[in-house]
Structures are given as C-alpha cells and as structure tokens.
Amino acid sequence: MAEPPADGTRQRPATRRREREAGGARETRIKVSYNDDEHAIVKAAAERDRQATASWIGRVALDVAEEIVVPTPVNAKAVVGELIEARKQLKRIGVNYNQIAKVLNSEGEVPGPQMIAVHQALVSAICRLDEATLQVMRERKERG
Hints:
By secondary structure, this protein is mainly alpha-helical. The chain is 61% helix and 0% strand. It has helices at 36-48, 53-65, 76-105, 112-143. The longest helix is centred in the C-terminal third of the chain and has 32 residues, at 112-143. The protein is elongated.
C-alpha cells in the first residue's frame, strides 16, 4: 500500500484534465456558482467522465458554444419517446390499411366496424404525432 506524502496532505485520485490547445495557456478565468444540488449534479457528471469538475465544465461549455453538442430540455426524452411510439403505431395502422386495401381491391368486403376502428386509430396516432412535433418545435423556438 502506498504511503501518504511526508507533508501530511492527502493524494487525490487522478482525474483527467482538458487537453491543451494550440492557442497557448488558458489565462482567462470565469467564476461559476452553483447551489449544493446543482454542484452535486455537475460533480457527478464530471466523475462519470473521469474529469475534474472545472475541466468538465470548461469542455462542456465549449462544446455547446461551438455547437458540437446541442443542449436538450429535461423532458426531451419523453417527447422523443412519444414520437417513437407514434411512429410505431402509425406503422402498424399502415399495415392494417394495406390489408384492407388488398381486400377491397380484390372486390372483397371489409366490415364497417373494422374500417371505423382502423380510421379512429389512425386519427389518434396522427394527433399524438402532431402534439409531439409541436412540442419539439416549441422547445427549439425557445432555444433559438
């Protein structure tokens, strides 16, 4: 087991620093303030990436500023999930419509309740897709 340094200070676990850039030393400092909860979130994110907190903040801030990464709202996962589900539902309904068209094209008959059920499912899926799309558009407008 390694011995502690002679001066009595604790050694910190090795964390990765941001890479040096060709532009020279970084001399400009910016103070960032967080409450305890926010700091815990940022610190945990930095630890996941095995970076010092300040280095992680600097890298993420530059990535966003250079539009390498686009920040997404917290509820973006829910909106994307809704879009995925609406897409799946529309695909299933499309298969049903194709089956109905095949029957009708072969001069067969499709029961009225079946036609109504497929039509209602289609209208419902389109409404869900429209609402999710409008939500994405609203969020993009707020950012832009």
